[in-house]
From TrEMBL:
The phosphoenolpyruvate-dependent sugar phosphotransferase system (sugar PTS), a major carbohydrate active transport system, catalyzes the phosphorylation of incoming sugar substrates concomitantly with their translocation across the cell membrane. The enzyme II UlaABC PTS system is involved in ascorbate transport. This is Ascorbate-specific PTS system EIIA component. The keyword Kinase applies. PROSITE patterns: PRD_2 (PS51372), PTS_EIIA_TYPE_2 (PS51094), PTS_EIIB_TYPE_2 (PS51099). InterPro entries: Ascorbate-PTS_EIIA_comp, HTH_11, PRD, PRD_sf, PTrfase/Anion_transptr, PTS_EIIA_type-2_dom, PTS_EIIB-like_sf, PTS_EIIB_2. The keyword Cytoplasm applies. It comes from Heyndrickxia coagulans. Residues 187-287, 290-397 form the PRD domain.
């Protein structure tokens, strides 16, 4: 969402204007780097600014931004004539973050007078800011203290102080004006940021990792903040990594050597820097821990729990485990050291896929036992995204007609998840890989299709897709790609020739392809097929039972699975497997509050996927002394399509109003209407 201030000027435009006024003849490239924008975007911002300025006095010459004397006055007027009610609140939060950044990174004493002079506010305003900052840290292990000699200083465990510094730095650089103010108030310099970005690119090359666009823009600021803290507060500190030693990885000595021109850095500083580069916002990492056997075991246990709770079997399970291992290793470091992570899809994912999120959260205990506390919602959502993406997997198809690539700037895990989903959706595409935009632009790769999360200009067919593909968007995307293939005579001819290539002499392939292309250009009659609706199991009245008589705990499984046996959906051996599992582990087979889901694996006797929802008018007393009025008998599908139905049912069962309506229903028809309304 874009927020506008007075006089029609956007906040991001004002940040550009601040840069222009703070520097003489700043280049388009520099402004673009500092604001993480392309040069073309900066040009458009300047056009908008000129449309608002009375004289339109900002010029671009030889890639340099120039402002006349009159233009400077006009610009300052535009920046001061804003909606005060919004900007005052906005600037107060920004200023307090800047004050905290200064206190955490600078060595010289910070008195009220010095703070008021540096940030152009009165002593009273500076004092109010200090009081508010103290309140923010009232319950934290670190405190803001004052002494005549040292002024205001943060004191507390160095690890927590540095983590807080990184959090504040992230808040600043993600805030409009934040980067501008950090430079204009001399809290850091453009030169330092530029040098740190070059150092990161060198590290990236030497240890063969792929930093995302977001990391390349964010990490230079974070690393500069850590260096300033280490240089200006040279205290003795350490942190223990009893289980995992980052020093024994191949990456640590490379990163250590890259920072050898900073002699004030001690080993804890270097380890901390290394962990930031490898883990702080890198969702998936290729680095290996010196002792990761227990992590691999935790991954095995996690996947086993998922299979039990979701009643599914994963295609290429070993590949899934490897993917989870790549994610969880840096995640363990982040959690052990208190690093925070951002997941822009967290709220939407939990809202749209609450059932999968709940199952993954309940299955994450093996990882949480390693770190000693619960995973954050952000970490759980990333795991859930990997799991949900893998549930769409089918058996690999060896055909590859077209070449394609995925471009995404959000993060490694998101782009790789998108890549895996697209591979499954388009088995006749050869996906070269998932890249950030800068990686793709740095190497000449010829492809037929580009799947990108933001608009991108290319000669190849470019399709903008959401970072996370849900069922509806997957169906729409398949239809769109098919339409594009039908309309593109060259690609259509290529596909047909590929299908019959075994019958065409190699030296005639190009000629045949061109002939077919010419044919289609003369006859554009296309036939399009509809996608099947993979919306899960279909519920009808026969899938619902309402029992008014008493049922004992011992006969409850036989009772609810009787309709599935009658419909020949399952074999007797499946019922036996369900009883064996459910009577031992019933407390883990839940699909809602006191709503149980007995099931076994599809390969244990399922003839076809089926489901039976059973309402007991006389509740069944379970061994945990809780009365149960609702159960779901499940015969799962081998392709995991039943999970969509379970997700919908879980949403309904979590709604207390809907659950009351279900329990008061008098007929299967009434119950079906409740489910159909959702």
């Amino acid at each position: 969402m874009k927020v506008e201030g007075g006089m029609g000027m956007k906040l991001m435009d004002k940040e550009v204007l601040n840069f222009i006024l703070a520097h003489q003849e700043i280049s388009l490239e520099t402004v673009g780097q500092l604001l993480s924008k392309k040069e073309e975007e900066i040009r458009k911002m300047i056009e908008r600014i000129n449309s608002v300025l009375p004289g339109g006095s900002i010029q671009i010459q030889d890639n340099k931004i120039l402002v006349s004397g009159a233009g400077i006055e006009e610009s300052f007027d535009m920046l001061t004539l804003q909606e005060k009610s919004f900007l005052q609140e906005y600037e107060v939060e920004l200023r307090r973050n800047l004050i905290m950044y200064r206190l955490l990174t600078h060595q010289d004493p910070s008195s009220l007078q010095q703070l008021s002079e540096q940030f152009f506010v009165s002593r009273n305003t500076a004092f109010t800011d200090i009081k508010k900052i103290k309140e923010l840290f009232r319950h934290d292990p670190i405190q803001l203290s004052y002494s005549r000699k040292g002024g205001y200083q943060f004191k507390g465990p160095e690890m927590i102080i540095r983590n807080k510094l990184i959090q504040i730095t992230r808040d600043l650089i993600k805030t409009v004006y934040g980067k501008t103010k950090m430079i204009t108030f001399h809290l850091l310099s453009e030169t330092d940021i530029h040098l740190m970005r070059e150092k990161l690119e060198e590290i990236e090359h030497n240890i063969e990792i792929q930093l995302t666009d977001e990391q390349v823009n964010e990490l230079p600021y974070i690393l500069c903040a850590i260096l300033a803290r280490a240089k200006n507060h040279p205290i003795e500190w350490s942190f223990q990594m009893h289980r995992y030693d980052i020093r024994n990885t191949k990456e640590y000595p490379v990163i250590r050597d890259a920072f050898q021109d900073y002699p004030f850095l001690k080993e804890p500083d270097l380890i901390y820097l290394t962990l930031q580069i490898l883990s702080s916002n890198m969702i998936e990492s290729a680095f290996r821990l010196s002792d990761s056997d227990e992590i691999s075991l935790a991954v095995d246990r996690f996947v086993d729990r998922l299979k039990s709770k979701l009643a599914i079997g994963f295609i290429k399970e070993s590949d899934l485990k490897e993917k989870i291992l790549l994610h969880i290793q840096p995640a363990i470091f982040r959690n052990l050291l208190g690093f925070q992570i951002n997941n822009p899809l967290k709220t939407k994912f939990i809202k749209d896929h609450g059932f999968i999120y709940q199952v993954v959260s309940e299955s994450a205990a093996p990882f949480e036992n390693l770190i000693g506390h619960a995973l954050s919602p952000e970490e759980r959502v990333y795991l859930s995204m990997i799991v949900l993406g893998w549930m769409y997997q089918t058996k690999e198809n060896a055909k590859s007609i077209f070449k394609a690539v995925v471009l995404c700037h959000n993060g490694t895990s998101i782009s790789k998840l998108l890549l895996e989903n697209l591979k499954e959706m388009f088995p006749d595409f050869e996906f070269i890989g998932a890249y950030s935009f800068r990686q793709f632009e740095s190497r000449p790769i010829e492809v037929d299709f580009i799947f990108t999360t933001i608009p991108y200009k290319s000669k190849a067919t470019t399709i903008v897709v959401p970072p996370f593909l849900e069922q509806e968007s997957r169906q729409q995307l398949k239809k769109l790609v098919q339409k594009l293939l039908d309309l593109d005579t060259k690609k259509k001819a290529k596909g047909i020739v590929y299908a019959i290539k075994d019958f065409i002499p190699t030296d005639k392939m190009n000629l045949v392809e061109e002939t077919v292309k010419t044919f289609f250009e003369g006859d554009r009659k296309n036939e399009t097929g509809e996608e099947s609706d993979a919306s899960g199991l279909k519920l009808t009245e026969q899938n619902i039972s309402i029992l008014s008589y008493e049922i004992s705990w011992e006969e409850v499984v036989d009772t609810i699975f009787a309709p599935l046996l009658e419909r020949n959906a399952i074999e007797p051996c499946y019922l036996k497997a369900v009883k064996s599992a459910f009577y031992k582990h019933y407390q883990t087979m839940l699909i809602g509050p006191d709503v149980y889901l007995p099931h076994a694996r599809p390969d244990e006797g399922v003839n076809y996927p089926d489901i039976q929802i059973v309402l007991f008018k006389k509740a069944v007393m379970f061994p945990n002394h809780r009365p149960v009025s609702l159960m779901v008998a499940l015969a799962p599908s081998a392709d995991n399509s039943h999970v969509l139905t379970l997700s919908k049912l879980n949403d309904i069962f979590l709604d207390s109003k809907a659950l009351r309506q279900i329990k008061s229903a008098a007929s299967p028809k009434q119950l079906l209407k409740i489910f159909e309304r959702r």
